[in-house]
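TL;DR need C-alpha cells for one chain.
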Amino acid sequence: MKVFMRRTYLFVFYLLIFSALFGLPGKATCQSDTVVRVNPAEVTLSPGKSYVVEVWVDGVEDLWAFSLEISFDPASLTVPDSSLEQGGFLSTDQNIIFINQVDNNRGLIEFVMTQKRDPITDPFPLPRDGSGALIRFQILAKNHPGESNLNASHVLLSDRDGVEIPAEKEDGVVHITGEGVFVYLPLISY
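>> reply
TL;DR here they are.
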C-alpha cells in the first residue's frame, strides 16, 4: 500500500511540474492578428456633404460582445443620432444593445453590444469568427476646413466567457475641403 501511495504522489508531483513548465491545455486567448479599424481609413468631404463610415473587425475568433468609443472633432463633424446602427457582423436578431449613443457636443460615439442566448429558438448560438462591420454611422462635414480624426479611443472585444480578445486599432481621418471659389464673369450681350 505504501508503494502505491508513493507512486501516486510521485505521479501527481511530476504532473504538476509538467503542467507548470508546459501549461495546461485550455483556450488560447492571444489573437494578435485581430484588428479593429475605421473603414474607409480616409474620406474627403466638402462642407455640407455626408458619408457612411463603418468600424470593422478583421481576423477575430470567438467574438461574442464588443464595446466601442469613437471620438471625432465636433467643430468639424456631426453624426446624426439616427444614423448609428449595428454593422451586422454579430447576429442581428440575437443580440442586446446596451449603449447606442452619439454626443455631438463632446465628439463621441458609444456603442456596446452582446449576443444573447434564446433557449427556445437558438439555445447554443455560436460566437463569430472572421471579419465584418461592427457598427456604421453617417458623418456630416461642417463648414470648418481641415482634418478630423476618427479615433477608436476605446475598443473592447470579448468572447462568450467574458475573456478579452486583444486587438490592434486603426483610426481614420476625414479631410474637409474649403468652400469652392466662385468667379463671376460679366455677361456681355449685344
